[in-house]
Amino acid sequence: xxxxxxxxxxxxxxxxxxxxxxxxxCGNALLSWMTxxxxxxxxxPWIALVLSVQALYQEYLRNPIPEDFPLVGLAAFFxxxxxxxxxxxxxxxxxxxxxxxxxxxLALLFWIGKKMGYVLKEAN
Length: 124
Description:
By secondary structure, the chain is mostly helical. The chain is built from 4 helices and no strands. The longest helix has 33 residues, at 3-35.
């Protein structure tokens, strides 16, 4: 991946990455509500999920997607999901350990940082 593609990925993709992160968090919030009895129902994850998916679709229609970006977006989605899972399990320790979720989040964040050019920058 060249420097031009890295710059293009950083400029066009930040909004999409944040929307994918929010969609992952909302998806996990809905899953947590259905599977963990201590988590109360809230309508806000539904609203945020619908709005973030709609905004992701509109962004997809407006801007071309670089070739490596779908994997980075999927990784951001999983960061949101596993991050929210770790947060919920920290709040309710009886629901299980959050160690695996934290390790997955850190590994995915490192990989995203490397793909976006923030971590382990190559010298030219």
